[in-house]
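Dear colleagues,

I hope this message finds you well. In preparation for our joint manuscript, I am sending the Sodium-independent anion transporter (Pseudorhodoplanes sinuspersici) sequence together with its predicted structure, so that both groups work from identical material. I would be grateful if you could confirm receipt.
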Amino acid sequence: MNATASAAKSRSEPTFADLFTPKLITVLREGYGLAGFRADALAGLTVAIVALPLSMAIAIGAGVGPERGLYTAIVGGFLISLLGGSRFQIGGPAAAFIGLVAVIVERHGYDGLVLATVIAGLILVTIGFLRLGTYVKYIPYPVTVGFTAGIAVIILITQVRDLFGLKLAHEPADTLPKIAALWNAIGTISPVTIMLSVVSIATILVVRRLRPNWPALLIAVIGATLLTTLLGLPVETIGSRFGAIQSGLPAPALPPFSPEKIRAVFPDAIAIALLGAIESLLSAVVADGMSGRRHRSNSELVAQGIGNVAAAVCGGVPVTGTIARTATNIRAGARGPVAGMLHSVYLLIFVLVAMPLVAYVPLAALAGVLVVVAWGMADRAEFALLLRSSVADALVLLATFLLTIFVDLLTGIGFGVVLGSFLFMHRMAESIDIDGGPKFIRDDVSDSVNGRPAYAGNVLPDDVMVYRISGAFFFGATARVNLILDRVASPPRIFVLDFSDVPFIDITAAAALERFVQRLHKAGTKVYFAGVRPHVRRAFKLPGLRGRSVYYVPSVERALKAAG
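The corresponding structure tokens are as follows:
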């Protein structure tokens, strides 16, 4: 019987192959033919058309050259599709990284960004192999909404310069200095640039409304480029700011680094890894909901880590799964990861053949693209709903939102998670209940309602006490339980503690019980623990809670009978 149970358990536990086999292998095993390749080729082309202007816009918004966004989508996107745990995930530069990357580049230079991204990739691979990917889902929802809205605000602020054509000698990366610099340059507004920005945004919105299946972002960028070139508009372009863009991919290279440099960029690497894990797994969840499939979270994180290392050493920026491009991939009829790989191949062909044309693209058009993206990122309805739901949720939401904008992303997420955890523990501690004493036994009429057998007898002797704890008994609830137990001023001959409604207990609560039991023993009281569940019993490992100190019985009735 034990051997059978052990074998069944071993079969139910996922193997290494179950957790880390890329979805590409799964798709090929299912049978992948010419029809599937045709569907993936068309879907990959559709995604590439969306990714082309978006990758350049995100890179420019982050303070690096537009070609680095394309390198990221080509190298990182290909590897994420090749090795990832999602059938439809599209990897590339994400708008969520704009503020973070801009700050890292300003503080440590592009070499510092490369080093931080490589370290972040190694962290993601480690998290994946340690099977910690499932824990990302425990980030409170107000934290997710808060930092996403904060990132959207940061993106909007970073695009003010190009939207209005402001002339700045230097644009700080941090939010408050950036706002001050933009305000000081308010007198350099260019009406022509504003007009082009409005036309670009309006084009995107109109095309999406009238022709949802058309590539609105690319149409807006091409239209603005033609308008600028044919009319000779005096606006800033990619070529005027960044110079000529070379065709082809750079050779892989690591920047020079030292232990001091690693220590300096390590906090930024953690921020990149954390945001990359959250963003990619959220995107995978969205893909699961749209396709009815199920992704492998830990395999996806390993692929994200490898993709980040490769993208960084090939001249790119941090890469992650992108929700908008992944959704486009599914709607375009993709069958599997080949679509994402082909999307990178299409972008590579563009870089090899048509890269010089990028110099003519006006920056105002790309700023318009990012404004639309930022507006879509901020879930305004959910933000308003959380503000109205409860004071605790609103507090977590606003703290995360404001810290993300005015301090940094890592602080915002970290503080939000800690604050949310403390508020959750407070709620759990308040939910625990403890009743006891003779009155509890005489007035206990709820047992017949919830199915628990009634305690034998309606009246107990004065030297017998029965208490029941209901709820998770953990360190946050210890003080509440101790307050009631400490009121047992006159220790009885028999003390019974009913654990039948306790699903969990931790070592702090067990230690508090041990001290209480020791106090009862000194007074000569015999202690019974009734209805302790097996997994709760395993927490009672302290010497004062073992069999010689406490009698464990299946029910209160058995305890009273045993005590005579």
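For the figure legend, we might mention the following. Residues 214 and 332 are 11 Å apart (CA to CA). The chain has 26 helices and seven strands.

With kind regards,
E.M.
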